[in-house]
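Schema walk-through. Below, the input block comes first and the output block second. Nothing else is stored per chain. Lengths vary across the set, and this one has 381 residues.
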Amino acid sequence: MRDDREDSEVVEVATETLPLDAWHREKGGRMVEFAGYWMPIQYDGIMAEHLWVRENAGLFDVSHMGQLYLSGEGLDEALEALIPGDVKSLAVGRMRYSLLLAEDGGILDDLMLSRWPEGIYMVVNGAVKWEDIGHLREALPDAITINHFEERALLALQGPKAFDALKRHTTGKWGLDALVFMMGGPYQIGGVDAWISRSGYTGEDGFEISVDADKVQYVADLLCGEPEVKPIGLGARDSLRLEAGLPLYGHDLDPTIDPIEGDLGFAIQKRRREEGGFPGAARILGHYADGSPRKRVGLLVDGKLPVREGAKLFDGEDEIGVVTSGGFAPSVGAPIAMGYVPRDHAVPGTSVAAEVRGKRVPCTVAATPFIPHRYVRKQGG
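--- output ---
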């Protein structure tokens, strides 16, 4: 990996390895550089792995993500000055998706918050975790302590059979079935302490498991010893999240995009919409009330030719937007994409065209997700 500095000095930065690096290679993982780490892109093939997760359960290594623990007096108020989510109402064991915002309301990162008894556990994207940590340290008061859990690994067990496979090895104060979507708690997996949340990035039921790095191979072997579970790579993780309509930071979200443009208005709870007080509130709440000039949308592609990130979108001869993610969707059986179009083109059913290798490929704006989410939610919730 090369770090090109403004002064033209080129510094070689070593690509880091995950705690399970040797395990991935022994399992036949094809390793690629991603977010500064060597990570497996596939084992048996992206399509086969994708369909396995939709029907069974897959184990993903997401230890490149940043795991942070924030604590200290006034934490809730301090965090609410940086993100648009309602932190104060977050009960112990509950999770919330939120966004780290720039001064103008642009998205610096999307993240997950969990209330632990004495503080907030936060998971941020691996590609920008160091920038996030720097931003938080600079913006939060001195009374707030930020611990970076560098000695912890993070696994994601996803798919309709994930619960069955995990339950066989899990003990704790509560049964695993006490967890529903966006809840977490302390458990043991094969006697190893872990924080388990019912969450994920595939649209399927599933769990994320934070565990000490020196115990992660034991846990991975335990789970992959179950007949429902196989290791799954980055390639299928991307196609699964695309079908689920979930944005990827650095592609579908970046500092030029605010939460309403990114179709993430749900991440701004009612009290925050009424009170404001977060970065870029005037811009964001204006877009919430009146509509944003552009919006992230799904795209169904006519034909078999995949439409990739960076493809320009057209209405007739007028360039109107850009594709930010795209590829073949195994569960849909066709190419799909996400991108940004003007508000008046964002209605499902609107016809647009993507430019691919000099040709115009017809596309139709579609509601997301492309396939139904299968989260296990609280009854009546």
